[in-house]
Write a structure and sequence with these properties.
- This protein is of the alpha+beta class.
- It has one domain (4-82).
- The chain is 24% helix and 20% strand.
- It is built from 2 helices and 4 strands; from the N terminus they run βαβαββ.
- It has helices at residues 11-22, 47-55; strands spanning 4-7, 27-30, 67-71, 78-82.
- A two-stranded parallel ribbon has the order 1-2. A two-stranded antiparallel sheet has the order 3-4.
- The termini are far apart.
- Bound molecules: flavin-adenine dinucleotide (FAD).
- Flavin-adenine dinucleotide (FAD) binds at residues 7-13, 30-33, 37, 39-45, 49.
Length: 88
C-alpha cells in the first residue's frame, strides 16, 4: 500500500513526490509520457527555482543567469532587471 499517488510527472508533481519521499512516504508518480518528459521550455530557471531544486538535492546544470530581460516582438521596448538574490 502506497502513502501518496501523484498524478502528473511535471515539475510540480515531481517536486511533490521528492518532498514526500524525503519525508519517508512511499510515493508513486503516474505519468503517461515516457521519461524524460519532454515539454516546451526556455530552459531558464528563476533564482527561487534554483534554490528550491538545490534544497531537494537536484543539481541544475547550465550557465548562471544574472538577470532577466523582456523584449517585445520588434525589439523596440524592453524591460530588464538584475536578480537581487542569487542567480538563475
Ligand atoms: C513555451 C514555454 C516555455 C517555458 N519556459 C520555461 C522556462 O524557461 N522556465 C520555467 O521555469 N518554466 C517555463 N515554462 C513554464 C513551465 O513549463 C511550467 O510552469 C511547468 O511545466 C508547470 O509544471 P506543472 O508540473 O504544474 O505542469 P506540467 O509541466 O504541465 O506537468 C503536468 C504533467 O501531468 C501529466 N498529466 C496530464 N494529465 C494527466 C493525467 N490525466 N494523468 C496522469 N498524468 C497527467 C502531463 O503529461 C504532464 O507531464 C514554459 C512554458 C511554456 C509553454
Amino acid at each position: 500500500m502506497i502513502d501518496l499517488l501523484v498524478v502528473g510527472g511535471g515539475p510540480a508533481g515531481l517536486a511533490t513526490a521528492i518532498h514526500a519521499a524525503l519525508a519517508g512516504f512511499d510515493v508513486v508518480v503516474a505519468e503517461p509520457r515516457p521519461a524524460p518528459v519532454d515539454k516546451a521550455c526556455g530552459e531558464g530557471l528563476m533564482p527561487g527555482a534554483v534554490r528550491a531544486l538545490d534544497a531537494l538535492g537536484v543539481k541544475v546544470p547550465g550557465h548562471p543567469l544574472l538577470g532577466i530581460r523582456y523584449v517585445d516582438a520588434v525589439g523596440e521596448r524592453r524591460a530588464e532587471a538584475v536578480f537581487r538574490t542569487g542567480h538563475g
